[in-house]
Amino acid sequence: PAGSAPGPARPGTKRLPRAIVVGVKKGGTRAVLEFIRVHPEVRALGTEPHFFDRNYHRGLEWYRSLMPRTLDSQITVEKTPSYFVTKEAPRRIFNMSRDTKLIVVVRNPVTRAISDYTQTLSKKPDIPTFEGLTFRNRSLGLVDTSWNAIRIGMYAVHLESWLQYFPLSQIHFVSGEKLITDPAGEMGKVQDFLGIKRVITDKHFYFNKTKGFPCLKKSESSGLPRCLGKSKGRTHVQIDPEVIEQLRDFYRPYNIKFYETVGQDFRWE
After folding, report:
1. Which of 185, 190, 211, 244 is the right S-S partner for 233, CB 3.0 to 4.6 Å?
2. Domains in the chain, start-ordered, CATH in brackets?
3. CA 236, 241, 246, 249: dihedral to nearest 10 degrees?
4. pLDDT tens across the length of the chain (269 residues)
5. Residues 20 and 67: beta-carbon distance below 8 Å
6. Contact 59, 65 (CB under 8 A)
7. Is 27 annotated as a binding residue?
8. Which of the residues 25, 26, 79, 101 is marked catalytic?
9. Is residue 203 annotated as part of the catalytic site, yes or no?
10. 28 is in an annotated binding site
């Protein structure tokens, strides 16, 4: 209408992501996203769009519409940890762009399963015990691989689907353990993988002793320190050491195969 001045045009364009944090749940994906978005050359979607698993029918334009605006010099990143275990996700991402860079944050699968269970328990206090869900037959040591908390940690199995579409050079594996003990070192490798300057360094982090987790001295949106939400660093449920031992035995062959495939020893043994 006449007389109304248009609002300031926001610079940049909404683009499909050039890099996706595809997994894994309870591995440290939120930390990677929060840490990388401090970089001036990275813009990240804060929420999980679940496009390549739940919302694929909505189409690429819908997906693009969710993305932050970026300048030509910036990279768009999104994260949805369930992609790693979604059968169709590798093909769908490949069909969007075969050049997509993939980031997978992994941690000791036994710890990951306990963390996963702890999170579920906080929402559904009446679920069965961890032991009850872990085994089909405990005395025989038969682990129930249909339970998602167990299945996600079989990294070597899920990785096979991705390697049908993407070369290993396009997939970067972050150690969830090192992300806590050496966040700057792990994020340095992520920046190298994305082909951007190492801007995020030791000076960006401090260790929060209460949470047992590194925090950012300054967040992307304000000059204030930023720690991950209260659900991060939650105290795990106590599990019978014998159950942990049985799970270690179960995961060992999968871990070894995973180390051999990616050429990296995560020292979970």
Report:
1. 211
2. 15-113+151-235 (3.40.50.300)
3. 90
4. 444 444 556 789 999 999 999 999 999 999 999 999 999 999 999 999 999 999 999 999 999 999 999 999 999 999 999 999 999 999 999 999 999 999 999 999 999 999 999 999 999 999 999 999 999 999 998 999 999 999 999 999 999 999 999 999 999 999 999 999 999 999 999 999 999 999 999 999 998 888 788 999 866 566 667 787 766 667 889 999 999 999 999 999 999 999 999 999 999 98
5. no
6. no
7. yes
8. 26
9. no
10. yes
Retrieve residue 132's tokens.
Answer: 């009850």
Minimal CA–CA distance to 119: which of 144, 148, 157, 78? 148
pLDDT of residue 196: 98
pTM for this structure? 0.92
